[in-house]
Amino acid sequence: xxxxxxxxxxxxxxxxxxxxxxxxxxxxxxxxxxxxxxxxxxxxxxxxxxxxxxxxxxxxxxxxxxxxxxxxxxxxxxxxxxxxxxxxxxxxxxxxxxxxxxxxxxxxxxxxxxxxxxxxxxxxxxxxxxxxxxxxxxxxxxxxxxxxxxxxxxxxxxxxxxxxxxxxxxxxxxxxxxxxxxxxxxxxxxxxxxxxxxxxxxxxxxxxxxxxxxxxxxxxxxxxxxxxxxxxxxxxxxxxxxxxxxxxxxxxxxxxxxxxxxxxxxxxxxxxxxxxxxxxxxxxxxxxxxxxxxxxxxxxxxxxxxxxxxxxxxxxxxxxxxxxxxxxxxxxxxxxxxxxxxxxxxxxxxxxxxxxxxxxxxxxxxxxxxxxxxxxxxxxxxxxxxxxxxxxxxxxxxxxxxxxxxxxxxxxxxxxxxxxxxxxxxxxxxxxxxxxxxxxxxxxxxxxxxxxxxxxxxxxxxxxxxxxxxxxxxxxxxxxxxxxxxxxxxxxxxxxxxxxxxxxxxxxxxxxxxxxxxxxxxxxxxxxxxxxxxxxxxxxxxxxxxx
Length: 547
Prior knowledge:
The chain starts with 7 loop residues before the first strand and ends with a helix. The protein is elongated, with a radius of gyration of 29 Å. Strand 18, helix 11 (415-427) and strand 19 (433-439) form a beta-alpha-beta unit. The chain has helices at residues 114-125, 146-151, 164-178, 228-235, 243-261, 280-291, 309-320, 325-328, 339-346, 369-385, 415-427, 447-451, 464-473, 479-482, 522-528, 535-544; strands at residues 8-15, 20-24, 34-37, 40-43, 50-55, 58-71, 77-89, 95-97, 108-111, 130-134, 141-143, 154-157, 184-188, 211-215, 296-297, 302-303, 356-360, 395-399, 433-439, 455-458, 492-497, 504-508. The relative contact order is 0.14. The chain folds into 3 domains: 8-121, no CATH class; 141-198 and 365-520, P-loop containing nucleotide triphosphate hydrolases (Rossmann fold, 3-Layer(aba) Sandwich); 225-319, no CATH class. The chain is of the alpha+beta class. The strands form 4 sheets. The protein has an 11-stranded mixed beta sheet.
């Protein structure tokens, strides 16, 4: 039951559909700036704190947006609060979003005690997906609804150093404790969630028997899994005057090679997008042969001689670039039959059965990230799109540093990645593919992707553009609590959306062990560190594209 003993703070003096204004009781009537209830010290009027409006047996949960002082006609000091309604509390402590019974002037304003707040989270506590504790009440555990967080997409946003990696690690650790049959894929761009070969002190922050780290050197996403459209982007330049001829020839040749190479599969209908093997070397040879022939091609009877010069140069340069070996020179995935093994590795069903698959992309150059991430996103979606039992095998994809490859702006080279992740954002829910985007620059992240997220976990954000962008996207968030984005401590977050019963400010549970994302110790290294380093080794790593 809701306790109201010694919790009266004031009365509502103004009410509308968006906010209420309350006048606190005077000092003569017992106002004190700080109360201790159930052993917890509470500062009255703290921005982002919860209060409760009571009238005629109706309880409305509100959050403090602002506080100020005025002087009345008698010269007495009065204290005022502006609060935003969040929803209604039942007598037994249940909570429903929205307000059906708006209070009138004179309604009582009460403190909300820790036991009442605990009741509000009890609805989600059954799944035991605990992520932290309330900042104002350290005795109150914060639980997130896992079905909303994982199934309806989420965003973890915050500037560098605010605790994003810690939050991701903590959430996944909590996931593994509460849901031991999870299937999580992490796009790890900086090697924060796996061990680093050159640093023996590092290790994955997840149990060894539940995680599989695939290093970039072992990663293979073979070219023959690219869609026809993706192959065009990889091989053909839009500004090439012969682009239309190249596109048409590519389509015909691709169909021929896929049919010739996979006759033994007896697939029947084969398209340019069928996920089956074809030899890239043969494709290159046919392009070279056509480029040297005078035979006519197409409806307009165009001679092919010299039409593929630019394409051949581009393809050869890709083949000579070791950064593309994961795509163009696969060592293990050289047959259509190898696709099943690739997918098993991705979702944690390989030789090492894992609940978390960490794809370490730290050694992949930045300009190749769009190609890699586009394929990972598409494979995750296609796996469950074609899985008739997808509802029994939900997948969750965590996209670290998402703004760098899922940009808001239409950027050359990122079209495939945007399509891949926007497809997951818009349709993934139907096929049990969840997405979590992690970013330090939400203003630069695809608006389509963010608009499909139902739960937002916002850590410290000081950039005004990013703040404004988050406020515009976040659903039902009280303006007052989001004003605190600039003042959040490291590891402190504001969660809003469908995953939480109400907007909540909390401290994320410290991950144990933490990710490999600790700050560099500049003062210590510059004071006591080495005076020299192995430059020759650096040069060798650079040349070999190996970290």
